[in-house]
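Components:
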Amino acid sequence: MRLRNWHKLVLGVAGLFIAVLFLSSGLTPPGPAGEVLRHNQAEDIDASPFFYGDVENMSEYEAGVAAMRDSAEAAAASDTTEKAAEPKSDSTTERPSPKVSGKVCDPIKGECL
Amino acid sequence: MSSGISSLWKHEDWWAVWFGFIIIGLALLQWLPKIPKIHKWTTSPLDAFLVIKDGAATGNILLPLLLLMIGLAVLTAIGMAVMKSAPVGRYVAGFVGIFVLACIAYWIANQAEIKHWGLSYALWALVLGLLISNTVGTPKWLKAGAQTELFIKTGLVLMGAEILFKKILALGAPGLMVAWIVTPIVVLFMWHFGVKNLKMKNKELVIIIACATSVCGVSAAIAVAAACCARKEDLTLAVGMTLIFTVLMMFFMPLGIQWVGMNPILGAAWMGGTIDSTGAVVAAGSMLGPEAEKVAAVVKMIQNVLIGVLAFVVAIYWVTVVQRTDQCTRPNPMEIWYRFPKFVIGFVAASLLFSFVVVPAYGGDFTIVENTILNPVTEVFRSWFFCLAFVAIGLESNFKDLTSRMERGKPMILYATGQTFNLILTILVAWLAFMVLFPHAV
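Structure:
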């Protein structure tokens, strides 16, 4: 009985060894199923951390998002300033509609037809 | 269970708090040397144990690893001796065996290609333990070192230091909406579905699967399992399921998002809110571009912070409602206090200490705290304790017990239904947050 159990352990270790060998070989599933894996290999992405503290460049991601938020905020602010600076339309005077690459544009709505 | 003041040195939960805070204290004082980690390796397995600088090996980590093993064995053996929970000599012998198995688990997990697959040390540690326990059986001397609860709880107290509350504002209101509104709703839905609809008897398994699905997989499963005093087999089952589904979601979610032509930021927020582990979120987000990668990682990080709150709420709910229903008695406040898992106090205290004292003391600069205290010390110790815990769980679990807990596939149905609900709710809230309410947030 005990000998049989040791056989099981040897078989299990052999199975584990084969699994590790396969996974560490760099082979990927064919087609779309292996696309993410090939991307991880190309970019050397560690997909194993299960907690954010284990991700090596987490502070870079945070800084990146902070920069994205800053530029989005700045873009929104300049948008508001531009809109405020736009001259108000005079309903009594006719304005020529500017043409942009052959399209007729409404200068107030900013839409081109 | 010992009560009164003596529980401070007789109870495992308190020892986890002491161990955690001893390490945190030494880290704050910067009295600890560099804690060794098994390194990443590609083709030569020995590279995992070498110190490589500028492409050349300058030494190895064998002695530091040995010292770490001795240090952890001595530290935990003091607790074991005072608690009188196991003969110290036998505990130390078992601990050495478990530490060696943990090193092997780390060594497999740190192979470069295996890291690309997203298979963490937790899986390999479990597999190694299960392999021994289900073939030759766990020897008695090894079992004496398998102090799963102590390892998990100490790891969780250390994890508390990494949970910094100010991080929840990293993505502003839309990030909070995706991570903090959806998650509790999914937990409540899955709890209700598991207990009322599926009529699962094992409530601990229901809450572990619910939290692992909705928050962040393995780390949430560990925290909640400890908070509700779940059995090791429940944790093994939940972690196994979450690891398999995480890899599948990492493989197929970004492809689906690209196929339908979804906005990358929306897709990133969706994946950040639904894929269980942070590494898989980063990998999947990276498929959609660098900006999506960052957004996905940060959404996941904000969700990770919920672990502390969830563990606390689950611990309270368990001692006041679930255990009361089971035992048909209404516990008084003192009884609630006695039953309350005390390590949760250490977990929350570490989080509060770092969020509101340590980080402000460093001028509010997370990066300094992370680079000097968290990443080199508490995070490394936490990972070692979790790895030891997963080896111990494997050594104490057997397949017969695991299959008996399957309740005719109900845990799988719970996971699949909960994850589907999570996917639908998260995409709706992410769309509302990032496309409708705050379209210029990022």
